[in-house]
Amino acid sequence: MSKMDDLRALREARYEQAVARAAGHRVSAPKKEERPVPKSTAVELPEAESLVQLCGHRAISGRTCTREDGHAAKSHRYS
Description:
Structural class: mainly alpha
Helix content: 25-40%
Distance between the termini: 47 Å
Number of domains: 2
Number of strands: 0
Largest sheet: none
Order of helices and strands: HH
Radius of gyration: 23 Å
Strand content: under 5%
Low-confidence stretches: none
Region (Disordered): 21-42
């Protein structure tokens, strides 16, 4: 196949997926291999810190603000 034939085949496959999605049918994606999460990566907060409500403002990058809820600071502190 030429490069153009490959591009045409990809475009047609995407179109079929979009039509199926619009019709309410599920298009199965290839399943990803799930790896177990090591316990050392889990972050545990002390009980005193867990009672404080966080602001939770989300940045465009997907990170969340770690300041307390209703903080007076104009900027957010993301992590």
